[in-house]
Write a structure and sequence with these properties.
The chain has twelve helices and four strands. It is mainly α. The chain has a single domain, classed as NCX, central ion-binding region (A middle domain of Talin 1), CATH 1.20.1420. It has a two-stranded antiparallel sheet with strand order 1-4. Helix 5 runs antiparallel to helix 11 and helix 9 (212-223) packs antiparallel against helix 10. The chain starts with a helix and ends with a helix.
């Protein structure tokens, strides 16, 4: 029971802290006059992916490389096949901004690089530097372009003073630090009890758990008819999970891929479900992720989970 207590406690703290981080980050973004699409792709996406960052770094430092890598791969699959699918089932998402094609391209680029970098069984320091470099360049480009076009865009008013937003972010980071440690501790103990590998636990339990902030954020955004924020959160999170989380983690400590055949199997699903997302969004200027499409995405994710536990 202790393992489950740690898991639930860690998850609770992660969700609460992720929520606070998103709130503070969005307020800062509005203060600096950044569009809702870019807020979703960068600030909110990076904020909701903070649990993955803390868990993967902590797992890598503890030598649990399968959890560090599986957490990212599983989160990217869960973000599309579970989180976005559930949001679409509850409230269909209308695609209005065809400029999101560039962000989809970046998502596929970093995913392809992850596959290439993993061919030798190790994601090392320089691969991490490359990932972080791409993330920094992408973020700067997105923010600069958004501010240049800001006069033709609308954004909500700031409801929190910048100093309070910063304090909220700092508190949330502390919460994410402790929550991630408790969550990994519980997940590893459960893996031993169930006789399941750390990779399976990371790709399923840990990945879904750390994707809860994305679910809440995207769902609220969709209900408020902020489709750009909702879909941008998912795409931005997938970019950050690979370029940011794995990038920083591998810079701190090289990640060893325990089983290359399993790595390739998981990567096939990442590419497959990412391609399914693109098809569901077409045409990018007036497309719609309907309840039917959401149901198909969720069905695909359920099949993947069943294969993992077979």
């Amino acid at each position: 029971m202790i393992a489950y207590i740690w898991l639930i406690l860690g998850l609770t703290v992660l969700v609460m802290s992720g929520n606070w981080l998103v709130t503070g980050s969005v307020q800062l973004a509005r203060y600096f006059k950044i569009s809702s699409l870019v807020v979703g792709l960068t600030v909110v996406a990076y904020g909701t992916s903070a649990p993955e960052m803390f868990i993967s770094v902590g797992a890598a430092l503890d030598g649990a490389h399968d959890i560090a890598l599986g957490n990212v791969i599983g989160s990217n699959i869960a973000n599309i096949g579970c989180i976005l699918a559930i949001v679409a089932l509850i409230y269909p998402i209308v695609i209005r901004n065809k400029a999101i094609a560039f962000d989809l391209m970046i998502m596929f680029v970093v995913t392809t690089l992850l596959l290439v970098f993993g061919l030798n069984g190790v994601i090392g320091f320089w691969e991490g530097v490359c990932f972080v470099g791409i993330l920094v360049g992408y973020t700067v480009w997105s923010v600069v372009k958004s501010r240049m076009n800001f006069s033709s865009e609308e954004t909500e008013k700031v409801t929190m003073k910048p100093i309070l937003a910063v304090l909220l972010i700092l508190v949330s980071i502390v919460g994410l630090y402790f929550g991630s440690g408790w969550f990994v501790l519980g997940a590893r103990e459960i893996a031993l009890q169930w006789g399941v590998s750390e990779r399976v636990i990371a790709i399923s339990v840990v990945a879904i758990g750390t994707s809860f902030p994305e679910l809440m954020t995207s769902l609220v955004a969709a209900i408020r008819k902020e489709a750009d924020l909702s879909i941008g959160n998912i795409i931005g999170s997938n970019i950050f999970n690979i370029a940011g989380v794995l990038g920083v983690t591998s810079i701190i400590r090289s990640l060893n891929i325990g089983d290359l055949s399993m790595f390739f199997f998981d990567m096939k699903w990442v590419f497959g479900i990412s391609l399914a997302l693109v098809l569901c969004m077409l045409p990018l200027s007036r497309g719609k992720i309907s309840r039917l499409k959401g149901g198909l995405l969720l069905l695909s994710f359920m099949i993947y989970i069943l294969i993992l536990y077979r």
